[in-house]
Design a protein that fits this description.
Number of strands: 5
Structural class: alpha/beta
Number of helices: 5
Strand content: 15-25%
Low-confidence stretches: 170-177
Helix content: 25-40%
Shape: globular
Amino acid sequence: MLVDVLGPGLNVLFCGINPGLMSEATGRHFARPGNRFWPALHLSGFTPRLLAPAEQHLLPSYGLGITNIVPRASAKAAELTRDELVAGGRQLAEKVAGLGPQVLAVLGISAYRTAFARPKAVIGPQPEQVGGARVWVLPNPSGLNAHWTVATIAGEMARLRASLRPGPEPAVSDLRL
């Protein structure tokens, strides 16, 4: 099972749908080369440089973390059942309540709609909270989600970043240019 990337005082907990097979095999989130998560994260201003999946351990130093709705790996998110997504949503709400991030950012509108019974949800900020955190739904960064580009995903991430309350800046020693 892929281990969450967590730390104290998270500004944003990014939440994928479930791990892909490459992520499961490598132990790294968004590990497939065609996945746009890491480039979009950098282009949005969340990280000072493009991080590789092998550097996911640096995320908490930027106030960021990663988890998934469903822990089971699959080749495609479409392989998940409705019951898995709903159960994963309940577990995610408990996890978020324990961690206390400012924002839960779910990367996938269809999975969010199913997991949280919000069939009319759209990309962007949501009116409800999950586990006490504000919720923002972002596009799925998978290469299979072809109608979203790195630039448009990064634009949505930048909107989320602009909505955050000011927090501590990353330590200078954590910034690698």
